[in-house]
Amino acid sequence: MEINRNLRICLLALLLAIITQSVWAQGQTVSIHLQKASLKQVFNAVEKQTTYRFSYRSAAVDSRRDISVNVTNGTVNQVLDIALVGRNLKYKIVSSKVIAITEKEAASHQLEKTPLPTNHIHVNGLIIDEGGEPLIGVTVSERGTTNRAVTNLEGRFEIEVEKGHSLEFSYIGYLSQTLSVKPNMTVRMSPDNHNLDEIVVIGYGNSKRRDLIASVSTVKTDELTNVPVSNITQGLAGRSPGLVIKASGGGIDPIPYITIRGGEVPLYVIDGVVRSQTDFANLLPEDIESMSILKDASATAIYGSRASNGIIQIQTKTGKAGRTSVDYDFNVSMAQPANWPEQLSAYDRAYYANVARKNDGLDPIFSDEIMQKIKDGSDPQNYNSTNWRDITLRKWAPQIKNAIRITGGNEKTNFFASLGRIDQNSLYRSGTHWMKRTNFRIGGATNLQEIGLKISASIDGYVQSVNHPYTSKISSYREVFRGVNDGNLFSPAYNNLGLFYNQNTNIAAEISKDAGFIRTKKNVVNGKGELLWSLPWIKGMYVRLSSNYRFFYNSIKSWRKDPATYAWDSEEPSYASISQLQHESNAGYAFTNQAFVGYDKTFGHHNISALFGYEQYYEKNEDYWAKRENFTFNIPQLEIGDANAQTNGGKDDIELGRAAWIGQLKYNYANKYYVEGSFRYDGSDYFRKDKRWGLFFSGSLGWVVTEEAFMKPFVERNIFNSLKLRGSYGETGLDSDAGRWAYMTSYSMNPKGQIVGGKYVPTFAEGALASPDLTWYTTRELDFGFDFSSLGNRLYGSFDYFYYVTRGYLVAPKGKSYLGTALGVGMPKIKSDSERRRAGYEIQLGWRSNIGAFKYDILANYTHFDALWALDEREGESSAKNPYQRWQQHKGYFDVIYRNLGYYRSAEDVYNSVAFLSGINSGNLTAGDIKYWDANGDGRITEEDMRRLGKSKLPRGQWGINISLSYKGFYFSTLFQGSTRFDMYIPGSAAMRTDQSGAVSTKFPYQLDTWKPDNTNAHYPRLMSNTNRNSNNNYIYSDFWLVNGAYLRMKDFQLGYDLKYSLAKRVHWLTRARVGVSGQNIFTISQATKYGLDPENSSTENYGYPVERTLAFTLNLGF
């Protein structure tokens, strides 16, 4: 039923899109003025102003200079119709990237043909793309000779070659292939995703990859379409150098922690406009045209203060000239915990509880009679054997995704429309935790060629609902999974009549349909309009005006209702507390307005690009809530609650503003030497008017070494096909630590501050002292790198070294607490000398080739960084004075903790060693307890013995290996992802820490490796009935409980078959047909799994929603 409903929604969107298809539009226009030019000069002029590249036989294109073209804001067709007059040539616009020039009278061609021996073979062939469409203008060459041919309008070719020789196939934008000859050949060519002519979106414009001298990497977003994730952030780890990502458990629509090169939260830019991380996460992968990771100052500085931590830039799909096409993607998946420790049975837990008591010289807590009852289940009320996981959680959590999009247009108009739907369910057996999201997008453009004006508009957004149970005992994953993993196994979930049993925390009841809920709804609508005017009287100059409007409305309805529970033999319900309801709402809107003037011009070998403009941002949002208690009837409506127990509030009513003047200048000589610079004069309302503006800049240099004459032998021998060196330096301003209105004196009012004359009168209190001198602080960035390709572009890669310094953090002066107490108010923030440094490197290396019809591409990347505080004026005096504990000038440690020295070996060892005074006084330290290092040698263990130990909590090194294989319609891709060492701390139940009542502690099989006289190298200290017996000695904050979280994970895979290769080859109305299976988090290798942990858990106590392994069926269709 759910699938049918989703299909109906998608079909409705398709119908709406078809109705609107005639509205939208865009084409590529050119202004070309040439006199006595050759064909190649005309082609070059078109290529410089469009995305097109020409494919033709050199022999077919003469060098006569007899062409005159005078076209202003005209179409490419108009130019070619003029240029080809009087020539026996014709053209076909194959795609948005390729125009094929062929001879009219020939079906196929031979050129520069060398004399052939008699042992030759005549070859007939057809060349097609991945979708089975013929490719026009493909060059077919006999390897090692000048014998060549080119495919005709039907994609066919003929050529005579020597037996035993090979044929090379090359085509702009596609990977070259070398194949053994056969009399009849069908060759399928794959797009070259590393093509140097690829357009990369960067900053407020775009650039060809060959012209990039910034540190920018791209993510193949088409690989995310079939990955079974609920949002795109979950599929990014390992796909790009520089991206450092750490998941924080599983659950409904989780967003991992994402940084670029180990910085703070990056900036997200969608279609040239800054958007939130949530908006980015909720994008449909099917709607994304390209994703660029902007890492150095030359790429990010132009975006100002919010871009100092890098940018993830998205360009969404738009309409394209050509026939109307429809694409549909379907994905149904099932998820289960990827790494979740088995649990001991109730009987085993009771047994080891008795062992712990025995170790402490105490009587068993469970007698033989009780142990028998647990074993045979004869007393289910008091000594049950309850499996809370099986009762509360299902084995697999389902998810369904549907996406449909339609695009089309012609040279004057185009349009694009899409609709997506995702329904995600959790592991909760009750079905009370779920997420539903609907995405929509529609847009298009029109081209008024007569005046050189392009008009485009789009609207997109999403509607999302998330539901989670809510009672007086549970509201989050922590409470739920604590109940699942630590629930009392001896207590039943249901009473004698099959109703929820009334016990302390019956987690099955707490997450049931009878419980309350927290229901979060998000509604976002984003609209954008843009005018692009190519000035007809100044060639190369354009004006771009755009305005983006974002509206959002979020609401949270929190219905705290306890489920009905029952005594053992009763049908009379009881409730832990009376229900209450709270409504919260947050609504607002934001404008981003941009006005730019640009200029792009080529003078011989000199290429110049300039940009100047203004950007303004305004945001307003409001936040309100209302709450009522004492609900007599369990109806979740505010008016049902007690009006006398109502409270209301408005936490925020905020207006924000930013503005900036922006400039950029790019120059290159002969596509060989590059110089670029940019500035941003940034304004923020976080500061007073005379401190509000800051000027920041960046500069970069690039050198394409392979364009030099001395490199020609290396290029001809394929030692280097390309080699580019680049470097950049820049500054960006930051205002994030300033705080709103910190430059103004603030007061708070208490309406009932004092009683005067028997009546309440308001009072005022002064806030923190004002900081009128607050202003920008800066991050300086340095980057050096190179990009290369070799061996016929089969081997390719890049390397970057980066260094960041942030200075002038806004902090309160030292002695804040003392002075604040004396003055009665907090001290103001000032611009300090605090400095933080971050440096590292990243590598990417790939190899792509083919063995006949078998194609493969292997791409690996690695990122490493380190960071430290060179000076931090926020550090307290006690740690700053202790060289072993201060955090300044030190990098990559876990925390300041105690160092363990293993276990006490005997009572004599205890007697002759130093320890915590509390542990000594307890009289219960003995062999098998943990011994600690007296670091300062004062004969006792105190806080002064704590040291910087362990590895950082965030991995300093992350890597990924992407493997793509294909063979005659079959395709397989996989991503292996992992990290270097980082440390995880095991607290709580995962470390067998018991409470003061001496409750059962041993819950998992991996905890059975405890210290015993015959097992002195155990993972765990001696088994105890109560950790307080030795004053918690074994669970002090120490490196004993640190676990190496480094891991190797098969992050995802895709396996499928392209039906268009053979089975549906002749179904012409079907342009795309793929079926397959995919998965995520298939297996993990890590020391952490030995302790029942996933290295990316949100809780090392196993109180978080587990990371999930997902398997999916996928279907991709095109019409």
Describe the structure.
It is a single chain. A hairpin with a 3-residue loop joins β31 and β32 (673-684). The chain is mostly beta strands. It is built from 15 helices and 54 strands. Among the domains are: 199-325, Ferric Hydroxamate Uptake Protein, Chain A, domain 1 (Beta Complex), CATH 2.170.130.10; 346-384 and 899-945 and 984-1044, no CATH class; 516-881, no CATH class. The protein has a 22-stranded antiparallel β-barrel. Strands 15-20-21-18-19 form a 5-stranded mixed sheet. Strands 8-7-10-11 form a 4-stranded antiparallel sheet, with no helix packed on it. The radius of gyration is 34 Å and the shape is globular. The model is unreliable at 6-27, 106-114 and 816-822 (pLDDT under 50). Residues 1-25 form the signal peptide. Pfam families: CarbopepD_reg_2 (PF13715), Plug (PF07715), STN (PF07660). It is a multi-pass membrane protein.
Mean pLDDT rating: 86
Q: What summary fits the major beta sheet?
A: 22 strands, antiparallel, barrel
Note the total helix count: 15
The first-to-last residue Cα distance is 25 Å
What are the low-pLDDT stretches, counting only 5+ consecutive residues below 50? 6-27, 106-114, 816-822
Helix content: 10-25%
User: How many strands in all?
Assistant: 54
- State the shape: globular
Which percent range describes the beta-strand content?
35-45%
Structural class: mainly beta
> What is the alpha-carbon Rg in Å?
34 Å
